[in-house]
Amino acid sequence: MMRRRTALLTGCTALVLALGATACGSDDPVSAGGGDGAKTLSGQTVTVAGVWTGSEQKNFQKVLDAFSAKTGAKTQFVSTGDNVSTVIGSKIEGGNAPDVVMVPQVGVLQQFAKKGWLKPLSAATQQSVGSNYAPVWKKYGSVGNTLYGLYFKAAHKSTVWYSPAALDQAGVKPPATYAEMLTAGHTVSDSGLAAFSVAGEDGWTLTDWFENIYLSQAGPEKYDALAAHQLKWTDASVVKALDTLGKLFQDKQLLAGGQKEALNTDFPGSVEKVFGPKPEAGMVYEGDFVAGVAHDQFGRTVGKDANFFPFPPVDGGKAPVVSGGDAAVVLKDGKNSKAGMQLVEYLATPEAAGVWAKAGGFLSPNKALDLAAYGDDVTRATAKSLVGAGDSVRFDMSDQAPASFGGTKGVGEWKLLQDFLRDPSDAKGTAAKLESAAAKAYQGQG
């Protein structure tokens, strides 16, 4: 799956947020475990597992290589595929547990902690998180009052990507509200392109559409309650959000190819419909990672041929900032968990984040990272938006749910929202089905 500050604001950090290009000094928690010239981990190997493949895996390897140069440790990365929970469980049972896992879902992190698989993170990492991350990132990395996960890579999932040429041709500007976005979409459609390309074949993209609308429309308190299943999916606020989404889904002017084609379009295909050689739509909603696909697969120059505007506020609410992310956790059963803990300490530094930021396709929630580390103005803007949102960031709701409800192809929320895309006429009925599936999943979890 593609997927996603500050208890203490120093004057330097404030300047970073304001200007986006000011360097800040920082302590190096890893230096005690082996700074340059002190290769205290020489001869040791740290095994890291995560979902990343392709360019993401290559760029993360650059971070691991920087850690090796600093400490002398060797590293080995193992790709798990999307089903992290099952793969890691099998490795633990087989006596072959990795030392560190990059966990892409809050629900999976909580599951690992409750099974007793994780080591609490070190005092050095806790200090870095307390100083350089918004409290919300500590919350999503903790179970109870214990910090188990360090969010290294984040995704900004409240970005609508567009072709500047398509909007210019239609004579429209990036909209300031959700209603204006739909109006602009009709104008784009009148000019010869569909408004939106929707990746309905991948159910996770539909959950992201819902979450942005819901967070803006219903507000953060209800979002948090629904994410924890303390609020039922049959609540009127859910039905209202589904109604709002359904109006977009059933509007043939707005969807490239209509509902049927949307259901046969995966995420890369949705980006291709906007930024590929034969554009069919002017806009595609998804996270900051759209830019990487537009550039790497279709040769688009980000900032010139591809740009974004923030997901606009809905019905007078606040503009949503929904995020995802990958958290580094240390397994108790790893053969070299002590060295793994030092790797996580390194990942908590702006130095480590800067390695991947320079390579591209990356956002860090670490506010101590100099925004100049990012390679282009558009990425700097998305990073600034994410960091600047502070505690108003909300983690992807489906990633907080049990995987059987919020993270599995063909079942739960993914399938039910695909069914809703196919026929958006019954928001109440869809809400009831979502509640039934959620109740079953949360009961099974606990």
UniProtKB/TrEMBL annotation:
SUPFAM superfamilies: Periplasmic binding protein-like II
UniProt keyword list: Signal, Transport
InterPro entries according to UniProt: Bact_solute-bd_prot1 (IPR050490), SBP (IPR006059)
Matching Pfam families: SBP_bac_1
Keyword Transport tagged: yes
Segment forming the signal sequence: 1-23
Record's keyword annotation contains Ribosomal protein: no
Family according to the record: Belongs to the bacterial solute-binding protein 1 family.
Protein name: ABC transporter substrate-binding protein
Originating organism: Streptomyces andamanensis
